[in-house]
């Protein structure tokens, strides 16, 4: 579930797929496999500290997550003529930062966390030094043993110190948004519980490349692996294949 996934094709184009904060490669398996079936090579790395345990998470930071993303892009670029990037949530922030530096032809921003509905993220640069984690009042429960384990290690806590790292990447992405010249496909949901729909306007007003939007009506935050995932994959693949 937390394993990285690399699927090779005969294409000279690869898609780097980046998961989100407290997520894992599992969140991206569905869209990654669909993209591969359509003819692209794909690579879904596991960001440091994610998909293992809470101690690993606490011992990782934004520099580790960004470094892994950059190294993954450069590794793919060494073997493929073109590399596109798709990122979910925090992965969308990392995608934005990479795009401002490497200028890939195409990027996909899925529920990019350029803003957060939870206003407490603004306090994390200060609060995060004092409090490492806070147990949530309503923990998630899963029948699946692996999901239950990840919930016990990640999702059933708030992580002020790590949210401060997310906040750092958020600020970096916003600062570099105007340097993005890539063709950009943005996937947003009106029912996203984590990222406000107002990020649409931020993207429209800053990214320099041609932008297209896919607006969803029913999906939650993990738009690539929710109730409309088939539609998301189909439309994303159609866009990736367009000249």
Describe the structure.
The protein has 243 residues and is an alpha/beta fold. It has a single domain, classed as Rossmann fold (3-Layer(aba) Sandwich), CATH 3.40.50.1820. It is built from 9 helices and 9 strands. It has helices at residues 29-37, 54-58, 62-77, 90-102, 124-127, 145-155, 160-176, 199-206, 229-241, and strands spanning 5-7, 13-18, 41-44, 82-88, 106-110, 134-135, 157-158, 183-189, 211-216. The protein has a 7-stranded mixed beta sheet, with helices on both faces. The protein has a two-stranded antiparallel sheet with strand order 6-7. The longest helix has 17 residues, at 160-176. The radius of gyration is 17 Å and the shape is globular. The protein starts with a strand and ends with a helix. The relative contact order is 0.16. The mean pLDDT is 93.
Could you give a short description of this structure?
By secondary structure, the protein is of the alpha/beta class. It has a single domain, classed as 3-Layer(aba) Sandwich (Rossmann fold).
Helical residue percent band:
25-40%
Could you report the average pLDDT, rounded to the nearest whole number?
93
Task: Note the gap between the termini.
Answer: 34 Å
Which stretches are low in confidence, meaning pLDDT under 50 for 5 or more residues running? none
Secondary-structure element order, as H and E? EEHEHHEHEHEHEHEHEH
Tell me the count of domains.
1
If helices are DSSP runs of H or I spanning 4 or more residues, what is the number of helices?
A: 9
Tell me about the biggest sheet? 7 strands, mixed
Order of strands across the biggest sheet?
Answer: 1-3-2-4-5-8-9
Number of strands: 9
Q: If you consult CATH, what is the topology?
A: Rossmann fold
Q: So, CATH architecture?
A: 3-Layer(aba) Sandwich
**Which percent range describes the beta-strand content?**
15-25%
CATH superfamily placement: Alpha/Beta hydrolase fold, catalytic domain
Shape: globular
Structural class: alpha/beta
**Quick one: CATH class?**
Alpha Beta
Radius of gyration: 17 Å
Organism: Petrotoga halophila DSM 16923
Active site: 89, 192, 221
GO molecular function, one term: carboxylic ester hydrolase activity
Protein name: Esterase
């Amino acid at each position: 579930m937390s394993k990285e996934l690399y699927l090779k094709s005969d294409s000279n184009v690869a898609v780097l797929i980046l998961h989100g904060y407290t997520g894992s490669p599992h969140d991206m398996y569905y869209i990654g496999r669909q993209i591969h079936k359509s003819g692209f090579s794909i690579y879904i790395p596991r960001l440091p500290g994610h998909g293992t345990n809470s101690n690993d998470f606490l011992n990782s930071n934004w520099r580790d997550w960004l470094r892994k993303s950059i190294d993954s892009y450069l590794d793919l670029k060494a073997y493929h003529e073109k590399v596109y990037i798709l990122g979910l949530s925090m992965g969308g922030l990392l995608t934005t930062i990479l795009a401002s530096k490497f200028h890939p032809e195409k990027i996909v921003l899925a529920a990019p966390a350029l803003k957060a509905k939870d206003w407490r993220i603004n306090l994390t640069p200060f609060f995060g030094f004092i409090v490492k984690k806070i147990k949530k009042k309503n923990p998630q429960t899963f029948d699946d043993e692996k999901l239950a384990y990840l919930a016990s290690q990640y999702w059933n806590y708030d992580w002020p110190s790590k949210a401060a790292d997310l906040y750092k990447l958020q600020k970096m992405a916003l600062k570099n948004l105007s340097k993005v010249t890539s063709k950009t496909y943005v996937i947003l949901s009106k029912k996203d519980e984590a990222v406000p729909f107002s990020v649409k306007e931020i993207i429209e007003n800053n990214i320099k490349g041609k932008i297209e939007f896919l607006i969803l009506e029913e999906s939650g935050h993990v738009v690539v692996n929710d109730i409309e995932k088939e539609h998301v994959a189909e439309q994303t693949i159609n866009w990736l294949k367009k000249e």
